[in-house]
Design brief:
This protein has 7 helices and 7 strands. It is an alpha/beta fold and about 250 residues long. A 7-stranded parallel β-sheet has the order 3-2-1-4-5-6-7, sandwiched between helices.
């Protein structure tokens, strides 16, 4: 029997990269999966096709995580169309980096809206409908714990906020049998941070393993936390970073 059979998951930012790998893995493990996307409609359809190819029900929802109303509606629509919500994966993210002096207020607001406020709102909305065995899993970054160079202050700040948010969720929801955890990826080979990109060699030099990870590495950890094997893990920060923080 598939470990996630009968479960329903929602993955924000699930149309590409890490999000798409998580969508595929959860469906392969037996879950019906909804995903959100902003502009990558083709990617959303592609990820949805992967869900259906696994024999599961899928749902692609156009939703900008910078808009709190759209975030809440994505949760509500998942429940309305797929019947329930057992697993929420807060994955949507952006990477606005550069010199501190050049960061604009608009960039600050958008980054915090997507990386922090959207996670809070989605988790709050999910908590209203989740039962015992519910899972809230957020995708952070190794740059929340270690900042090896300049240019990432805003990004690192926004991802560091998820540590406290996750611990608070664990305490608020633990008595209901709902867990909350944070996965911190290191350099992962995606279109946002390709292993052959201009800064890849410098990033590899910071890793104990010395090579980029794959989106499937992150998806495997998410699947573990989402399943029965993750039932006694909550409030935790799990590094999947190739030794970046070692």
């Amino acid at each position: 029997m598939l470990e996630l059979a009968g479960k329903v998951a929602l993955v924000t930012g699930g149309s590409r990269g890490i999000g798409a790998a998580i969508v595929k893995r959860l469906a392969r493990d037996g879950a019906d999966v909804a995903l959100t996307y902003v502009s990558a409609a083709d990617g959303g359809r592609g990820a949805l096709a992967e869900v259906e190819a696994a024999g599961r029900r899928g749902l692609a929802i156009a939703a900008d995580s910078a808009d709190p109303a759209q975030v809440a509606r994505a949760v509500e629509r998942t429940v309305a169309e797929l019947g329930r919500l057992d697993i929420l994966v807060n994955n949507a993210g952006i990477a606005l980096m550069g010199p501190l002096e050049a960061v604009t207020l608009e960039q600050v607001d958008r980054t915090l809206a997507i990386h922090v406020r959207a996670v809070f709102i989605a988790s709050q909305a999910a908590a209203r409908t989740m039962g015992a065995g519910g899972r809230i899993i957020s995708i952070g970054s190794c740059l929340a714990d270690r900042v090896p160079g300049p240019g990432t202050t805003l990004y690192s700040m926004s991802k560091a906020a998820l540590v406290g948010l996750t611990k608070g969720l664990a305490r608020d929801l633990g008595s209901r049998g709902i867990t909350a955890n944070l996965v911190q990826p290191g350099p992962i080979d995606t279109d946002m941070n390709p292993a052959d990109g201009p800064g890849a060699d410098q990033q590899r030099s910071l890793l104990a393993i010395g090579q980029y990870g794959t989106a499937d590495d992150i998806a495997a950890t998410v699947a573990h936390l989402a399943g029965e094997s993750g039932r006694f893990i909550t409030g935790a920060t799990v590094a999947v970073d190739g030794g970046f923080a070692a």
